[in-house]
Write a structure and sequence with these properties.
Blueprint (H helix, E strand, L loop, with lengths): L1 H25 L7 H22 L4 H20 L1 H19 L3 H21 L5 H25 L6 H69 L6 H29 L7 E4 H18 L2 E7 L6 E4 L1 H17 L5 E10 L2 E8 L6 H5 L15 H12 L3 E6 L5 E8 L5
Parallel strand pairs: 2-4
Antiparallel strand pairs: 1-3, 4-5, 5-7, 6-7
Helix pairs in contact: 1-2, 1-3, 1-7, 2-4, 3-4, 3-5, 3-6, 3-7, 4-5, 5-6, 6-7, 7-8, 8-12, 9-10, 10-12
Length: 419
């Protein structure tokens, strides 16, 4: 008798564990969207219910005294109204009409269990494991007492030994399943707090970086404005101070613009871009800078056909300019900057290679992140903007580097056919 009851119980527990693990694995994608989390719960409930009812052998007493109370108790206690009501409806009506459990006891005990579970959910916070275990086992015991009392009053009492075995297993299972579900929720809460802490840290870093970088040019501008107030300042000095003051204000404005571009890249007027022409145009701008830095620039267009992508010219030029300028600055003793454009599997690839100081594997993982830079006077804003803009143009960007061996940057964009 015990063996005939134990196998369906183990199968039922395995389905509950599978539901918990599925919810834990998939849930991070929906962690801040309550509606989508509830839909995820319902989808998992529907899937596993369909598999269980379609492929498992059903024991009405095991279903009524084991699966129904555990499922409704956990769903209502931990998840709230929508998942709790859905679980109640699925298990109660499937129990009555599919598994053929006793109708009145199942409906009455299941409904009371749902109501008490929702009451505890909205009145009590999910706290310690011991308290939640106490809530769960109390809910299950109330269900069992109501079900068995109603069954006895109807004169449909089952074999006492069978009922005792199932009730004992159910009480033990309630502690086990609560333990699993509690730590699933604990992990979910930990993930939520981790994501929030990372966001707050990012906001703090951006605010610190912004205030620091703006304060420098504004302080300089204030100094020149104060000098302009002296009575003995010559006309030439006055003009020079005014020029420096404007430059400080323009520098502060450019920093703010970089932050705005990072937070919300603007692609207001996208058009077809000829990649070869855009690259050649940026190279011409960099030529004076490269001559001063003793850098040789080599450009190779490896595709015979026109390479066209969809984007905004100024933003695309900004991406190329920032990456190439960083490459030149990474070669303080001179070197070579090589740019390739090519077509590979309907993807336009732009490869920018330098022979500079390079970066370690740890540093390369942080490229494009806020507040990270390898330059003494840098802010990290340039590559932040590059990464953001490339993603906004539905492109991908990759970096490869080794110390003292230079860095390679690859940008991939979808090819727009001429037709």
């Amino acid at each position: 008798m015990v063996q005939s009851v134990l196998l369906p119980v183990i199968h039922g527990l395995l389905y509950m564990i599978a539901a918990c693990l599925l919810f834990l694995v998939i849930n991070p994608k929906f962690i801040f969207d309550s509606r989508r989390r509830k839909l995820l719960f319902l989808a998992i409930l529907t899937l596993l219910s369909f598999v269980y009812l379609g492929y498992e052998e059903h024991n009405p007493m095991v279903y009524a005294l084991h699966l129904i109370p555990l499922s409704i108790a956990l769903a209502s206690l931990y998840e709230g109204a929508v998942p709790g009501i859905a679980t109640w409806a699925a298990f109660v009506f499937c129990g009555i009409f599919v598994v053929e459990t006793e109708g009145l006891p199942t409906l009455l005990a299941g409904t009371v269990l749902l109501g008490l579970g929702l009451l505890l959910h909205y009145k009590m916070e999910i706290s310690s494991h011991k308290r939640m275990s106490l809530y769960t086992i109390c809910l299950v015991m109330i269900y069992l007492l109501l079900y068995l009392s109603t069954l006895w009053l109807q004169g449909r009492w089952e074999d006492t030994r069978l009922v005792t075995v199932i009730v004992t297993i159910t009480l033990v299972s309630s502690l086990f399943t609560n333990f699993i579900y509690f730590y699933v929720k604990h992990q979910e809460r930990f993930q939520r707090e981790l994501i929030l802490s990372e966001k707050y840290q990012l906001i703090g870093q951006l605010a610190a970086s912004l205030s620091h970088e703006i304060r420098n040019p504004l302080t300089t501008t204030r100094g020149f404005l104060q000098l302009m107030g002296n009575e003995n300042v010559s006309k030439e000095a006055m003009e020079r101070y005014r020029t420096y003051a404007f430059e400080g204000i323009d520098h502060a404005n450019s920093i703010i613009t970089d932050y705005l571009n990072f937070s919300k890249p603007s692609l207001e007027e996208p058009t077809l871009l000829n990649v070869k022409e855009e690259v050649d145009g940026v190279i011409s701008w960099l030529h004076p800078f490269s001559v001063v830095a003793n850098i040789t620039i080599n450009v190779h267009h490896l595709a015979d056909t026109s390479l066209q992508i969809w984007g905004e010219p100024k933003k695309f030029q900004q991406c190329l300019l920032n990456v190439m300028k960083n490459a030149i600055e990474s070669m303080p003793e001179g070197g070579s900057l090589t740019v390739h454009t090519r077509l590979k599997v309907e993807m336009v690839q732009i490869i920018i290679r330098d022979t500079g100081v390079g970066m370690s594997s740890t540093a390369i993982k942080r490229v494009g992140r806020p507040y990270f830079t390898t330059k003494e006077s840098g802010t990290g804003l340039g590559l932040m903007v590059v990464v953001s803009l490339v993603k906004a143009m539905n492109g991908k960007i990759y970096f490869r580097s080794k110390p003292n061996e230079g860095t390679i940057c690859e940008m991939h964009f979808g090819l727009i056919s001429n037709g």
